[in-house]
Specification:
about 425 residues, alpha+beta, eight-stranded antiparallel sheet, elongated
């Protein structure tokens, strides 16, 4: 369904009852999402009828406002226009100038209204009727149900950039991959590259997702439904944005890349460097800047020579690591993973008067004894992001990273030097 001067739905399945049932339905929806971004200025530059009058299902508008809330600027230093959301008949749009978020809503009417998110959400929550009407008044004010809200001239709202290259994934493929890498995204905002997920097309036809906080590194392979050229050189996308995408439980995800603002390369960036992205799903669209900089060379961290391989029960190992961390509470101590070549792995943790120990069965290497210290939470996360009943663990020396592997995904955990 094409978009004209106002937003039309990105795409809904009308011939089936399932989220993704056939290639034709999938292709149509993806084309709708891609097509929605081809003329980004048409909506903002279009003449707006006066006055604007928009009607929504109350619960639908409330849901759309909640979806875009993470991308509404807030705080004492927020620019007033960025603390607002733009209402169209079929979409709610917000931006903090780093990310543009667009959530579909099934509405009717004409025009557009720019209102503070906080005041609008309060009015919507207070509405007890099944439908709610937003009507523009003089001086950029609007009547929302029984409330009068002061807004801002819609022409002051930032315009979104252009995008030309796209790669599409089905939810069944991309969501499991995101669940692998998102736990390893850094929360340290002083290291923005590590707060993102590196996405790169591989020669094999798969797309690799990588995340690291410098203490661990998680990776997953996903095969795109529609393969584009924009990911060949790799791009780093904000982890918080991808977490919001995963939380929305989409039917599909389309990744589009652009160069600079409205196709013009940013100062200091080569023309082949993608500095903008758009991620479109069946319910929302997110735009923003890619994370600038060269992503760390993660390949050199992943061991190539893997002489020792142990097969462990995934759930048992994760539960043992979590239990050890719970017993010791806030105490800082490494979890010891010891293998003595006897088809068993000893898991232990000790600090002051508290200690924990467990013995787990394993299969594999019969080599010499080895003990490695790791962070219990990180190793538990590594086992949790795997999907099989058993996981292969590779350990070389006490000072080399511990690697967990299974087809299509891996997790690397840095060791902690043991004092004895």
């Amino acid at each position: 369904m094409a978009r004209t001067t106002t937003y039309a739905p990105i795409g809904y399945y009308t011939d089936c009852d399932t989220a993704v049932c056939a290639d034709c339905a999938m292709s149509t929806d993806i084309e709708n999402a891609i097509g929605a971004t081809e003329e980004p200025d048409a909506m903002d530059a279009a003449a707006t009828p006066e006055p604007a009058r928009l009607t929504y299902q109350t619960k639908d508008l409330k849901r759309a406002l909640a979806r875009v809330k993470p991308f509404v600027a807030s705080g004492a230093r927020a620019i007033p226009v960025l603390a607002c959301v733009m209402l169209y008949p079929s979409a709610v749009v917000a931006t903090d100038c780093d990310v543009w978020a667009e959530a579909d809503v099934d509405g009717s009417g004409y025009g557009r209204v720019l209102l503070p998110h906080k005041s609008l959400m309060a009015a919507v929550k207070a509405c007890k009727a099944p439908t709610i009407t937003v009507e523009s008044l003089e001086d950029n004010r609007a009547r929302v149900d029984s409330a009068i809200i002061a807004g801002i001239d819609p022409v002051d709202f930032p315009q979104r950039p252009q995008f030309v290259e796209q790669t599409a994934f089905t939810a069944d493929d991309i969501l499991p991959a995101l669940s692998v890498v998102l736990p390893a995204v850094s929360r340290d905002e002083t290291r923005p590259l590590l707060c993102g997920v590196h996405v790169k097309a591989e020669p094999s036809g798969t797309t690799k997702l990588i995340a690291t906080d410098s203490y661990r590194l998680h990776g997953a392979d996903v095969r795109p439904y529609v393969e584009g050229a924009g990911l060949d050189a790799g791009v780093t996308l904000p982890g918080a944005m991808l977490a919001a995408v995963a939380k929305s439980k989409p039917a599909y995800v389309v990744v589009m890349l652009g160069r600079g603002d409205n196709g013009v390369p940013l100062d200091g960036h080569p023309e082949d460097v993608h500095t903008r992205y758009v991620v479109a799903t069946d319910s929302m669209i997110l735009h923003g800047r890619t994370v600038d900089g060269q992503y760390p060379n993660y390949q050199q961290l992943v061991p190539v020579d893997l002489p020792r391989a142990l097969t462990l029960d995934r759930v048992a190992m994760s539960e043992s690591a979590r239990a050890a961390a719970k017993v010791l509470g806030r105490a800082i101590a490494p979890l010891r993973i010891s293998y003595n070549g006897n088809a068993h792995v000893d898991v232990s943790m000790m600090h002051a008067d508290a200690e924990y120990s467990a013995t787990l069965e394993c299969a594999g290497d019969d080599g010499e004894a080895l003990t490695i210290g790791v962070n219990p939470d990180l190793i538990a996360d590594a086992f949790d992001v795997m999907s099989g009943r058993t996981v292969t663990l590779h350990a070389i020396t006490p000072l080399r990273p511990m690697l967990l592997t299974e087809p299509g995904r891996f997790a690397l955990v840095m060791p902690i030097r043991l004092s004895d």
